[in-house]
């Protein structure tokens, strides 16, 4: 079968090969025919080493398709079922799951160390234990979440990561209050979904901050009340909040420098929500006096900060009701053979989300 493979960490191009085989099928597993997958910035972060991932590997973790086969013991799924891929399934039995913090379950992360594929030359891993830049993937049954018939594969794929992450940051983690002021720094696909989440929550002012003009323009169509470049953020803070700072600021870049900017844009007693996935050697610093004196809440948000199954259902309900726009997130579509074009579109900021069809 075909799959896009990164041979070594640090390479910036993927190699689309036709000699890849999905492996590991057995009890408790399912085989999925991937129909659509989104390109998320986390895939690029894994390729360049910002996020730890063994290589060679197949990127992609934002996918949807149909069940081809189910292993022994899988009773909740059957061949032909339409599913999205959840890269962080809940085991249901660990302390995090028992506390209701299923997004912190580590069971899914453990899958990242087991090869999902093989080639004549040896084993190949799947990013985040999945690897959706492939025609087929074998994953645990918990990674395959049934989707209603009216949800297109393209939309379901985005719900599998970017939509859930952005919406959840605003709704689950920050719990944006109606009438509040919000700034979102970084307006790719996830940032745009944070904008939409803030809008759903009833924020009065939503300022989108991004260096790319096309992304700023797009943010206005998704609910931002204003869009500015990073150099214009201080002026917006002064005009909109009287210099006090925003009630909520979302950092959706994954850089300590951006997080520090976001901290400065947050009012005393306000909330800084860190959504971007950054590197282990990139340290965010605050001094002990400001931490105490400003009483700003610093809230990281992993995968939307809530139960992912509930978050998927909520995203579908909001989309059906016309409260959020998911089709508009897909600005580019390419076949698997064009995956490197999609990578370029992501790196330059040209795309919000590129959907790869398989």
Per-chain topology:
Blueprint: E1 3-5, E2 15-17, E3 21-22, E4 29-38, H1 41-47, E5 57-58, E6 62-70, E7 82-85, H2 95-98, H3 107-110, E8 117-119, E9 122-126, E10 136-140, E11 144-146, H4 153-159, H5 162-173, E12 181-185, H6 189-201, E13 205-209, H7 213-221, E14 226-228, H8 233-241, E15 246-251, H9 256-265, E16 266-274, H10 288-294, E17 297-300, H11 308-320, E18 330-335, H12 339-348, E19 353-357
Helix pairs in contact: 5-6, 5-11
Radius of gyration: 20 Å
**End-to-end separation:** 11 Å
- Please tell me the overall pLDDT: 96
Structural class: alpha/beta
Number of helices: 12
Strand content: 25-35%
* Major pleated sheet: 7 strands, mixed
Structure description:
This protein has 12 helices and 19 strands. The model has no long low-confidence stretch (mean pLDDT 96). The strands form 4 sheets. Strands 4, 6, 7, 10, 11, 18 and 19 form a 7-stranded mixed sheet that branches. It is α/β, with parallel strands linked by helices and 358 residues long.
